[in-house]
Each structure stands twice: as structure tokens, then as C-alpha cells.
Design goal:
The protein has 197 residues and is of the alpha+beta class. The protein is built from seven helices and four strands, in the order ααββββααααα. The chain folds into two domains: 111 residues, Aspartate Aminotransferase, domain 1 (Alpha-Beta Complex); 62 residues, no CATH class. Strands 1-2-3-4 form a four-stranded antiparallel beta sheet.
């Protein structure tokens, strides 16, 4: 028999009003599709495990997400959306954004079957090319020796996370805030996603 985690109850209760019915619906579907599933909180949001990672859901200010650990082997191409949201189902703002219940339960059952069979998802074998830091980041690092030293010591993945975070800002004000925050965290030796480690 699966387990329910009170921290997931708390996560749902603290979510925005629009998100609560979506998260509760997803939660029930996961338990229906895999009654042995175990709930937990990883990386700050609800994750479901059954013989390894199965799926996860999350709520943000204006949307929710839901995705499978082995999503490329589970979710039909017709249901896959990559509209700047994690998970295979894209930005979910209302229940009608989700595939029908029967289909979602089927996805959960497929995920369970893959974990039962010990199937692994092939990881991309080609590493991402180095990403050039933007001029404003280089200038800010030049002014802060601790941040510069940390950035230089970071592995390529940590440097990439900072660079992508800064260059993906949609407004100049956001970019400047992110730049200042990045330099502050790097001066403390923190990688971009230090909160989730």
C-alpha cells in the first residue's frame, strides 16, 4: 500500500487557489494509477516514488506542472507541451489543460510498468557546448573577486545555470536583479540552485 505525506497536504494548502484543485486531481490520479506509490517532497515540491522516481507535480504563481521521470517513454506526442514549463504537459492553469482522467491514469500505470521492468531512460551522450557569459556578468564579476573566483571554480553546469538565468530575463530590470543576486550568491560560493541541494 502506498503512503501519503503530510508535507504534500501542506504544499497543496499553501498553493494558489487556482492550483489546489489541479494538484488534488493529479494526486488522486497518481494514487489511482499506482496504489503502491510513496509521496515525498524533493527539490521543494511533491514527488512520487515507486521503485525509483515516478512523477512529480508543482505549483507556481500562475501555473502548475506535472511530469514523469521517464516522460519521453510515457506521454503521447499529442499531449506533450513545452511551453516554458517543466514536465511534459506544459503550463497547467485549469483542470481542462490536463489530458482526460483515463489517459492520465494510463500514463501513471505505464510509468509503474517501466519501473517494475527496471527500464532506464537513455541520457544524452553529447555534452552541451560551453555558454559564453554575457558582458554585464563578466563586468560584475570583475568588480567582485570572491564571486569571480567561485565562478571560475564552478563546473560548467553551474556556470551555465547562472548564465542562462541571467540571459533569459525578459526585462532589463529583471536581468539587473538577477545579475546582482547571482554575484551575491557566487561571492558566498553558492551555485545557482543551492536552495535545492
Amino acid at each position: 500500500m502506498g503512503t501519503r505525506d503530510k508535507r504534500v497536504d501542506t504544499y497543496v494548502a499553501k498553493s494558489a487557489d487556482f492550483a489546489k484543485p489541479i494538484l488534488e486531481h493529479i494526486r488522486e490520479i497518481v494514487h489511482e494509477g499506482c496504489p503502491e506509490v510513496e509521496e515525498t517532497i524533493k527539490w521543494g515540491f511533491p514527488n512520487y516514488q515507486y521503485k525509483g522516481m515516478l512523477c512529480s507535480m508543482a505549483a507556481f504563481k500562475e501555473h502548475c506542472t506535472f511530469g514523469f521521470w521517464k516522460g519521453s517513454l510515457i506521454v503521447d506526442a499529442a499531449d506533450r507541451r513545452s511551453d516554458e514549463a517543466m514536465g511534459q504537459l506544459g503550463r497547467i492553469t485549469r483542470l481542462s489543460d490536463l489530458p482526460p482522467r483515463k489517459k492520465l491514469v494510463g500514463y501513471v500505470r505505464k510509468a509503474k510498468e517501466l519501473n517494475d521492468a527496471g527500464v532506464k531512460v537513455a541520457k544524452p551522450s553529447k555534452p552541451k557546448p560551453a555558454l559564453e557569459p554575457p558582458a554585464d556578468l563578466l563586468a560584475a564579476l570583475k568588480k567582485n573577486k570572491k564571486a569571480q573566483a567561485a565562478f571560475d571554480k564552478f563546473p560548467p553546469s553551474h556556470r551555465r545555470e547562472y548564465v542562462e538565468w541571467i540571459v533569459e530575463a525578459k526585462t532589463d530590470a529583471t536581468r539587473q536583479r538577477r545579475l546582482a543576486q547571482a554575484v551575491e550568491w557566487m561571492a558566498e560560493g553558492k551555485p545557482r540552485n543551492w536552495k535545492y541541494m
